[in-house]
Amino acid sequence: MNTPITARAHTNIALIKYWGKKNAELIIPTTSSLSLTLDQFYTDTTVVFDEQLTHDELSLNDTLITDNTLTKTTAFLDLVRQMAGIDTFARINSINHVPTAAGLASSASGFAALAAASSKAAGLDLDRQALSRLARRGSGSASRSIFGGFAEWVAGEDDFTSYAHPIQENVTMDIQMLTVVLDGSQKKIGSRQGMQHAIATSPFYNTWVAESAVDLVAMKQAIANNDFQTLGELAEHNALQMHSLNFTAKPAFTYFNGYTLSILNLVQDLRRQGIQAYATMDAGPNVKIISQSDATQVICAAIKNNFPNAGIEVAKPGPGISYL
Amino acid sequence: MNTPITARAHTNIALIKYWGKKNAELIIPTTSSLSLTLDQFYTDTTVVFDEQLTHDELSLNDTLITDNTLTKTTAFLDLVRQMAGIDTFARINSINHVPTAAGLASSASGFAALAAASSKAAGLDLDRQALSRLARRGSGSASRSIFGGFAEWVAGEDDFTSYAHPIQENVTMDIQMLTVVLDGSQKKIGSRQGMQHAIATSPFYNTWVAESAVDLVAMKQAIANNDFQTLGELAEHNALQMHSLNFTAKPAFTYFNGYTLSILNLVQDLRRQGIQAYATMDAGPNVKIISQSDATQVICAAIKNNFPNAGIEVAKPGPGISYL
């Protein structure tokens, strides 16, 4: 206690998506999911519990935060305080090395880093499974950012059985994600709201749950086999299934915009030319292109040729949480 | 015989889509569908059977055709010759008043006009149900273009039971379709090939068949109630369901491009502003906006504001086939 603890956690992008909760309070998902943690994007968070404080104090990228991000953070720290049996408030300093416009999930790295730093600062000594369960309470995808490389979040049935575990922390496959940034606007529909609406109204939702389980088994096999092509095909198929839930919700909504489809078509055109590139998208318009290192140049050239102003971020497999 | 017969048929746009056959040779669909015939776009076709001819002769928009459009036309005329008990070849002159780039189904008006003109020229006197069955053999959607206004193509089980019938030929509702032409390129994947691939590989296909039946009942009720909003919501939902089958096929394909999503988002934004506009899309990138006459100006202005070069075609409910 009273010693500042700093933890670093990296973002992850799901190859088998998480899209829907069976328990919204505990964040127990309807399906298991699988992601790749990325090296380029991470959050460093320092937490100190300080008896002088009369409430939690949060700064994000050196700016003091008082909006509902603070409310969410305090709710999360209440869980930590409960586990540690303390009632002290905390000072949290978080630096996000994630381009906020990129549609990369900063909540995944953010809550993973917060779980690691705050639990240790509160005097708890949690193993990674317990950290994953704790991070999950802040943001579902954060459960996976505890681990490096390929990680699976097992849906489970309750707070105790829903956590991520590593599938392959030191990735042997040549794999990278190119994030194509064409639209920096904020998403109109948050992912929490979006997934709840899809569960409630898409006629395809039950089929998605069943198919997702099949895709997950095949994805783990593809990782074990170092089979990049199968991994890419499964990831693109799974992402398009997830977004089809939104297209078929009542009323329909979508995170796709014109740029999304332009890049998706470009990726599918590249494949017709023999270049292995696959698309995945999350709760925002920007597309991530799953590819291998020898294809970077030709993919970037094709994008720049069509969209001279596109920003392209190249990320490789990244590590799990660490303390700095 | 030997008397030229000219028939006119109008295009139609499906509000409840046709996407898949249970019998490819006879064109028996997996689902019933429902469309609106449009006034603006039509095909005039003249047929004369002439014993001087040694093969069928086809001209389209005053150009002699010798490619596989002629092969399809001859195969269609073989059905007519069989019904009429003749073996004479025909001269066919077809003028398409459908902007070919607009993604409006010229095969629907084309085969409906051909069915009407060729059967009468061959000496047959078919009622509209028989004409609808015949037109279906050329192109499934042509079965609906025999009728004006709202028409339903009942899937049926075989050649005899699969035909369209009118739901409301003289449309009482204020309804129109704005076709937004932004992309004039040819579709990469024909609809026959696309729907077969979706049936064979989309995990959502069976659910689509079941949902489509539910949507159809609701759509007929909306027409009977003059309920434009429900009609629009159902049509957009049904179209997005159909396109989700393509997004979730293995491998995935799509008729959407960047323009498609830009216009879809624009339509959904207009609704948030209280303007009743709904999108529907077929086997091409251009979007049709289902709307009412008092909204034309604001919708067109919104499109032109974003896409100054967009072509916009406004179509109202149109009539069934006629002889000229």
Strand content of chain A: 25-35%
Helix tally of chain A? Answer: 8
Shape label of chain A: globular
Unreliable parts of chain A:
none
Which CATH architecture of the largest domain in chain A is right?
2-Layer Sandwich
Order of helices and strands of chain A: EEEEEEHEHHEEEHHHHEEHEE
CATH topology of the largest domain in chain A: Ribosomal Protein S5, domain 2
| Mean pLDDT, all residues of chain A | 95
How many domain regions of chain A?
2
What CATH first level of the largest domain in chain A would be assigned? Alpha Beta
Helix content of chain A: 25-40%
Q: Kindly provide the radius of gyration of chain A, computed on alpha-carbon positions and rounded to a whole number of angstroms.
A: 19 Å
Largest sheet of chain A: 8 strands, mixed
Oligomer: homodimer
Domain Mvd1 C-terminal (chains A, B): 178-309
EC number (chains A, B): 4.1.1.33
Protein name (chains A, B): diphosphomevalonate decarboxylase
Enzyme class (chains A, B): lyase
